[in-house]
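Standup notes, structure subgroup. Blocker cleared on the NAP input:
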Amino acid sequence: MSTMQHHSAERGSTAPVRQLPMQDSPELKAALEQANLQTLLMVYVHLTHDESMLETFKVHIHPPYTNPDYQIPQDCIDDLREKLLYVLTTPGAARNDDPPLALMQKMMTVSVGEPVENEFIPMVLEQSGFQRTAARKEKAERTPPPPGFKVLVIGAGLTGLLASIELERAGYDHVVIEKNEEVGGTWWKNRYPGVGVDTPSHFYSYSFEISPEWNHYHPHGADMREYFRSVADKYDLRRHIRFETRVLSLEFDEATALWNVTVENVKTGERDVIRANAIFNAFGPADRWSLPNIPGIDSFRGVLTHSAGYDEGIDLKGKKVAVIGTGASSAQIVATIVSEVEEMVVFMRTKHWMINNPEVTKEVPEAVKWALRHIPHYKEWFRFRVFWFAADGLYPNVVKDPDYPEDGIAVSALNEGMRQYALSHMRHKLASRPDLIEKLTPDFPIFSKRIVMDAGWYDALVQSHVTLDDTPIAAILPDGIRMKNGTEYKFDVIICATGFKHGKLVKDLVIKGRGDHDLAVDWADEEERAYMGTTIPGYPNYFMSVGPNAGPNHAGGLNIVSEAQVHYMIECLDHMIANGASTIEPTQDAFARHNRRIDDRMKHMIWTHPKSKSYYQNSKGRPVGPWPFRLVDMWNEMREPVQSDYRLD
Ligand code: NAP
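Run returned:
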């Protein structure tokens, strides 16, 4: 328990200011009626440390996927609501101190109906918002960054904004280079109809900035934009950001141990060079896109757009519309525009697994928002449950069971269960259309390619004015699309929901490190590798988010990875500065060892199944995207650098 005790010293900094007792109001009554029961139980125990209630409830709480229809007895529920109402509204009834960690762990275990082991505790305390590491700049024993030391961050999206907040808390002077005119990255740019997130709202945000204001259980694009703007305002981040500026190249100068960063104003084309001691490349993986390479695409005379370049002014009413692609963006677009268009053809190249998640389209009731805003500790305990069920519990689903046939359509009994769950949803939704069931049933394991959430896609496809065409496209014509089988369609609008250039992690950026190191060469032939997905030998003081094999592809969200990586970058810089060095980079040996470990583990993962094929892999078939371990492994391993794995100069 030593880690837990260490962390206990820092707890409480994100705890809400308790405003107890509360007034016994209709709003409070409604919140107690409608809010999540397991979370209310945690609030009660948090405020009273009454373990007997945990004992009462523990036999009644199960993970949602093991016993979804189980009903907690009504008398227990009534008793809890009554007791909680009393504690919240009676002067002196609630305790002022947080539960000891051993009790917190017990509470977590009861809340989710399965053990929350020690190794998870520091991560969930942070990720649920119960604790925040103290601001480094306030730590007396720490060596502060030397005067003039500057970090350059690329991108002001989810990760770049986070980097700016944490660099500020650590006393690092920094500048953020952002090519857009506002913060938010991909969530600022993407304006296609139905744009939204398939990670739950109450988790997909910073652990230290939990918002009670989400309107939906899965955020819409506009909600995400608002969240990032409000975070930028609250932390006064815009003073660090150079908007409408693009980074063209990064070149390390060995003589000065500085990076020369060439940037360009996207409007005027004016260029200049910024010198920085360290780089944090928080570029978004879902950023670079281009129109698909389909013959004749330039000849189309109607409106032709990519999902990521979609202009909200496009009028689809009564129009004949083509949607090319069937990934997450397409699924959201098709479900949203179906009632508006006169006719729609959806073009599918290969199949995707589609999962039913009733929460995807649900609004958060006002009473629940009220609970999140006003009931002490409710939002942290709520986030804990949301995170828990979207995280490492899903890991076994992507691990191959050696007893399962190598070339089957599942990798384990659990994975087969998921497949059946997805199939039954499809069969239910498409009961009247066996032709669609045949066209849409994938022949590869579920989760070996990014799954898509059904937010109305199947319901759209069965409509009489919608066609799903899975034959290859031959060409785009001035007024439509011709298929290889000769079929021709006429369209007013073509929406290419054809995804991003995932294949090349460097994209169009020139990155030149120490000596002859040039990332375009080092990573030539798609041999994209890093150490912990973040640092690379030969590239001193260069850190990247979403690097090779750092993607949370079994569960979770990029937010937790970003928090771990930003923390790690600052730990590395602090370690370097404390040792009086100017540069830090991983050793070649550590890099090779890490990549052997990745490759060894990857053999056991679903992404090396013979039928797995998606942008998770590079063109040679190596899964370059996924982190093949659990999220808790990444989080724990990124607490601090292994010193012997790094070279300091
Ligand atoms: P995507 O997942 O890459 O899907 C692109 C689709 O276009 C695929 O169906 C692909 O077919 C098809 N396609 C690509 N090029 C084509 C061509 N030349 N001709 C015909 N079809 C073509 O892209 P996305 O849906 O925009 O999603 C991009 C990323 O953002 C994914 O990671 C996605 O999960 C994520 N995303 C997340 C959310 C969210 O809710 N968090 C929302 C939207 C997107 P193949 O399958 O055959 O390649």
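Discussed briefly. Confidence is low (pLDDT under 50) at residues 1-17.
Next: hand off to the docking folks.
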